[in-house]
Amino acid sequence: MTNEATNTNRVTLEQALAMPVSELATIPADQIKALMDDVAIIKAAAAKASDMIHAVMEARYAEKATITRRAKGNDTGTVRLEDDGYTIITDLPKKVVWDDDGLKQVENQLAAMGEPVTDYIKIKRDVSESSYKAWPASLQKLFTPHRTVSGGKATYKMEAKKE
């Protein structure tokens, strides 16, 4: 965390967590920045610790989990392992990636067979926003009624002014 000894009037992260947002919104900007820095340090440490624990679990249980899955005739899925009085539940999710070009060929074959393509293949249409912005107005006009724009979650950063 930030060195709090240099500014004894600084609101600590622990104090901030006990304060209402309306009160925190009135503290000086440098203290908000210090709190943001504290949170960034904690997040980085938590991410590093999480990665380390995952590596430990992989080193200790991955091989046994693989053997257990294969014994059940699976390459993926959840298995339960026992270790020193603990049940270790490990899940290896299935990740499926479809070849877009191959699916287009299958789509054409299904259509030629008279089969309803959408019964078998989900078709997701998307338009690149940068492409849309670069199009002439006449082309944009065709797409605009089918376009919804909304905002996501705002993010905030603070940087000291360069003097």
Radius of gyration: 27 Å
Oligomeric organization of the protein chains: single chain
- Strand line-up across the major sheet: 1-2
Largest sheet: 2 strands, antiparallel
Structural description of this entry:
With 163 residues, the protein is mainly alpha-helical. 48% of the residues lie in helices and 9% in strands. The chain is built from six helices and two strands. It has helices at residues 13-18, 21-24, 29-71, 100-112, 129-134, 137-143; strands at residues 77-83, 86-92. Strands 1-2 form a two-stranded antiparallel sheet. A hairpin with a 2-residue loop joins β1 and β2 (86-92). The longest helix is centred in the N-terminal third of the chain and has 43 residues, at 29-71. The chain starts with 12 loop residues before the first helix and ends in a 20-residue tail after the last helix. The mean pLDDT is 91.
Summary, kept brief:
With 163 residues, the protein is mainly alpha-helical. It contains six helices and two strands.
Please describe the structure with a list of short key phrases separated by commas or semicolons.
163 residues; mainly alpha; 6 helices; 2 strands; 48% helix; flat
